[in-house]
TrEMBL record:
Keywords: Membrane, Transmembrane, Transmembrane helix. Pfam families: Claudin_TMEM179-179B. It is a multi-pass membrane protein. It comes from the Eukaryota. Belongs to the TMEM179 family. It is found in: Membrane. This is Transmembrane protein 179.
Length: 203
């Protein structure tokens, strides 16, 4: 559940999004007395990534499972067997199409999280150019005593988990979509490309 760290950290910053944030250090900033300004990223960025994860990892699977359960529990007397099979194939085809669309949305979400995290770290690492040097790595910013009224004590760990989890989610949806396409091909629901050995079905 990679979006939990992101939700917790967003709430800890008064519902502000840390992705794509810009940090400006004051000239008199030191490790003992740290002064900097944070320009937070657009809140819609975090809202999109959280919505994609929650809707397509929680709500959509439940709806899909309910649809298949209702399909196979229908009274056989109300529908002929061949029509029931056709309806099942149609729902399966619709399910695969939706999954492929989800793959694209999750890919966009993963890229936004990764790029936003990178830009935040690049901005924080400007502290390496100060005299004296404030930090050596992005994770060192977790040790700042003052985060301008916000709790940044665990931001690097939270966003690292969110980044890794978002790409894991993308790979999982991609594999599920590819397996669905393979199943459609096995059910003769995809066109066969002539002349390609891998597309020749056994009779």
């Amino acid at each position: 559940m990679f979006w939990f760290p992101q939700i917790r950290f967003t709430d800890g910053h008064c519902s502000r999004c840390l992705l794509y944030s810009d940090v400006e250090y004051n000239l008199n900033a030191t490790s003992a007395a740290l002064y900097f300004r944070i320009e937070f990223g657009e809140q819609e960025v975090c809202e999109y990534t959280i919505a994609v994860a929650s809707v397509f990892c929680l709500i959509y699977p439940l709806l899909a499972a309910a649809a298949y359960l209702l399909l196979y529990r229908r009274d056989s007397q109300e529908m002929r067997e061949e029509n029931k099979i056709d309806l099942g194939h149609f729902l399966f085809l619709l399910h695969i199409v939706v999954e492929l669309a989800i793959v694209i949305l999750v890919l966009v979400s993963s890229c936004m999280v990764s790029h936003g995290f990178k830009l935040l770290c690049d901005s924080l690492l400007k502290g390496r150019d100060t005299t004296p040097k404030i930090l050596d790595s992005c994770s060192d910013a977790q040790d700042f005593e003052d985060w301008r009224g916000y709790d940044g004590s665990n931001f690097y760990t939270s966003l690292s988990v969110a980044t890794a989890g978002s790409w894991f989610q993308f790979v999982a949806w991609l594999m599920q979509g590819l397996l669905g396409l393979w199943k459609l091909w096995r059910l003769n629901m995809l066109p066969v490309l002539p002349g390609i050995p891998c597309c020749i079905r056994e009779e």
